[in-house]
């Protein structure tokens, strides 16, 4: 008799409690009943310790279930048992799939069998006599003992089943939560790293833009402005720079706000290996550095210091008002009338700065709404140094070789960023009387032609020489400024020959500061600059239109002059600058032909202070034989009729245009002896 059969022979009350142990889907009573012989014949104790043995028994269990299923299929009355056994097999297989991998342990149902059989074996070995007595004698004490044992076994299996189900569900939930947490954590880390990397990439791009903007574009603008101060026709507008500075600074402030948002995130929650606290500070430092660099560079002098009636920019006279304009290239309305700019002068030579020394950057004083401070009424006044002298300056330099800089300072406070700003004018020459203006302008020309470092205020202590291409370009700018036309190649070559003699090329020829401004020209008592400046003044005051339209040949040697004229028709003339007049003079030379065809050359100088050159040319007369006045000037070189070239400039009107000429028949006539 099997132990299962013995268990069935217990009293109904006690056997029912035992049967309740199997009245569950985990290990159904039908399986226990029909496979009792096989179940009780296996070593379940070993199976509970040996996973391979447990796997083997489980496979045999499935085979037995299949065999029993086949037997039921042959019996007409076993339809329900057939369906149940198929379901039992599926349940066992599903439970095995839920076991942890890769280890293989005995399914909970099989372990239950093992525990049940242990209990029955114990009952069989230790309480056989008492169980038999219970069966035959209805011994109450033995029945109660068996019942207690069965109940304990049932309770143990119930607890086992409950723990298995609850723990399995909990572990599954924890696993899902862990997977979700790991996914979100890894995603969060990746998003943080990508975000911070994106900011770093943007800062790399911003640094490239900063370099282009500050080291190239701004430097190029400053050099163009410096050249424009001595007449170069360069564009010095700031609209593009202002637009670029404003846009990139705004972008940098946006990045700064993003980094501040990261601070808020870290303040709410952080964790070990959080990339934000580690990588954010260097990024913030880069943003602040870039912003500071950009904002400092955006404070510039838009219009260099100049006097209203001065020769040009950068020459100032004590006790005479001058103006200067500074500009912040970061255009932001919130700072309008907020930033105060103060003015001072460097201590190279002591001056008091008088006038309005502090002004707010504002948008009202700019044509395009830029942030400017326009100082229009500043004055420099010499501070008297005890014992006289020139203060701390090197006594070997003249006053017109001293260079000074006007200093502008303000404070930038915006979006949590505080930056002191400072900018300087180009070096200025400060004079005390008008007689020094010519020499002062020579210094300004020489410095801005050769030096791109505005901080070099000791430039004239060791002034370098200028190459002819540099010098010729600078001279051309002067004539362009005074007469709206620069020097052409023929005019430049004439000057080069005058300075260096006939050369194959003049590119390597040099002229020193001393030769330019201090040494006298051969056979004269004035320097090269005095001669050139006199001509420039003459052009500016009297000859601007004639120089602009090309009527004046200007620089041509006497030898070349005759070579040009002798090939032209009688009465051809040209206009050139005098080489012997200190304050600038112009002469006209013409060609006439004798009866034998020999060319004869004449020339005459003029004084333009009273009468304009076109009128002189129109009314000029020569006294020939029998004192007959004749005008020898007929064609402007090469072959333009005189009245066609100069008629539009004549001041004398015809009788129809001026009724007074009907009665007043007199006019000025310029007469020269043959």
Automatic annotation (TrEMBL):
PROSITE patterns on file: SH2
An MF annotation (GO) of this entry: DNA binding
Protein name (record): Signal transducer and activator of transcription
Location relative to the cell: Cytoplasm; Nucleus
Gene3D superfamilies for the chain: EF-hand, SH2 domain, STAT transcription factor, all-alpha domain, STAT transcription factor, DNA-binding domain, STAT transcription factor, N-terminal domain
Family per record: Belongs to the transcription factor STAT family.
Zinc as UniProt keyword: no
SMART domains attached to this UniProt entry: STAT_int
Keywords assigned: Activator, Cytoplasm, DNA-binding, Nucleus, Phosphoprotein, SH2 domain, Transcription, Transcription regulation
Domain SH2: 547-603
Pfam family, one: STAT_linker
GO biological process entries: anatomical structure morphogenesis; epithelium development; immune response; signal transduction
GO terms under cellular component: cytoplasm; nucleus
Native species: Cyprinus carpio
Keyword Metal-binding: no
PANTHER family xrefs: SIGNAL TRANSDUCER AND ACTIVATOR OF TRANSCRIPTION (PTHR11801)
């Amino acid at each position: 008799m099997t132990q299962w059969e013995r268990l069935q022979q217990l009293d109904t009350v006690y056997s029912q409690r035992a049967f309740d142990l199997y009245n569950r889907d985990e290990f159904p009573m039908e399986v226990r009943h029909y496979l009792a012989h096989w179940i009780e014949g296996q070593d379940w104790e070993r199976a509970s310790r040996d996973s391979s043995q447990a796997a083997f028994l489980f496979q045999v269990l499935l085979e037995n279930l299949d065999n029993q299923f086949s037997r039921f299929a042959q019996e007409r009355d076993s339809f329900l048992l057939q369906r149940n056994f198929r379901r039992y097999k599926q349940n066992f297989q599903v439970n095995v799939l839920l076991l942890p991998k890769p280890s293989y342990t005995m399914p909970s149902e099989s372990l239950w069998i093992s525990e049940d059989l242990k209990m029955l074996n114990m009952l069989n070995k230790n309480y056989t006599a008492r169980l038999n007595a219970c069966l035959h004698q209805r011994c109450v004490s033995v029945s109660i003992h068996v019942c207690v044992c069965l109940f304990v076994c049932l309770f143990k299996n119930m607890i086992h089943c409950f723990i298995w189900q609850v723990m399995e569900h909990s572990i599954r939930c924890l696993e899902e939560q862990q997977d979700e947490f790991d996914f979100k954590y890894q995603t969060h880390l990746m998003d943080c790293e990508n975000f911070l990397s994106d900011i770093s990439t943007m800062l790399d791009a911003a640094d490239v833009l900063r370099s282009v903007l500050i080291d190239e574009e701004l430097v190029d603008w400053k050099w163009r402005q410096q050249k424009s101060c001595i007449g170069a026709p360069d564009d010095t507008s700031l609209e593009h720079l202002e637009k670029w500075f404003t846009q990139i600074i705004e972008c940098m402030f946006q990045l700064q706000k993003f980094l501040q948002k990261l601070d808020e995130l870290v303040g709410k929650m952080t964790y070990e290996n959080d990339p934000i606290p580690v990588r954010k500070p260097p990024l913030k430092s880069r943003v602040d550095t870039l912003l500071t660099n950009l904002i400092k560079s955006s404070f510039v002098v838009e219009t260099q210091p100049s006097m209203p009636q001065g020769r040009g920019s950068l020459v100032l006279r004590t006790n005479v008002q001058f103006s200067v304009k500074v500009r912040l290239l970061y255009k932001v309305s919130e700072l309008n009338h907020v930033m105060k700019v103060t003015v001072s002068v460097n201590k190279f030579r002591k001056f008091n700065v008088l006038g309005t020394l502090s002004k707010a950057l504002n948008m009202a004083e700019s044509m395009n709404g830029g942030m400017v401070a326009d100082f229009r009424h500043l004055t420099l006044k010499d501070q008297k140094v005890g014992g006289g002298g020139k203060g701390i300056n090197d006594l070997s330099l003249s006053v017109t070789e001293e260079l000074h800089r006007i200093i502008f300072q303000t404070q930038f406070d915006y979006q949590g960023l505080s930056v002191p700003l400072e900018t300087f004018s180009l070096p200025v020459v400060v004079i005390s009387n008008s007689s020094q203006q010519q020499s002062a302008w020579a210094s300004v020309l020489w410095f801005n032609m050769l030096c791109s470092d505005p901080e070099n205020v000791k430039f004239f202590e060791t002034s370098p020489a200028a190459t002819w291409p540099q010098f010729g370009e600078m001279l051309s700018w002067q004539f362009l400024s005074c007469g709206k036309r620069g020097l052409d190649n023929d005019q430049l070559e004439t000057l080069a020959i005058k300075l260096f003699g006939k050369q194959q090329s003049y590119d390597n020829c040099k002229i020193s500061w001393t030769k330019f401004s201090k040494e006298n020209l051969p056979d004269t008592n004035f320097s090269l600059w005095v001669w050139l400046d006199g001509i420039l003044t003459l052009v500016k005051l009297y000859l601007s239109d004639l120089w602009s339209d090309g009527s004046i040949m200007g620089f041509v040697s006497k030898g070349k002059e005759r070579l040009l004229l002798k090939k032209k028709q009688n009465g051809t003339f040209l206009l050139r600058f005098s080489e012997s007049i200190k304050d600038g003079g112009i002469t006209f030379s013409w060609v006439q032909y004798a009866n034998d065809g020999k060319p004869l050359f004449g020339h005459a100088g003029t004084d333009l202070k009273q009468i304009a050159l076109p009128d002189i040319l129109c009314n000029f007369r020569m006294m020939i034989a029998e004192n007959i006045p004749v005008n020898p000037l007929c064609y402007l070189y090469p072959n333009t009729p005189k009245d066609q070239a100069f008629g539009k400039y004549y001041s004398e009107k015809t009788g129809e245009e001026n009724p007074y000429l009907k009665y007043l028949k007199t006019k000025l006539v310029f007469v020269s002896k043959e």
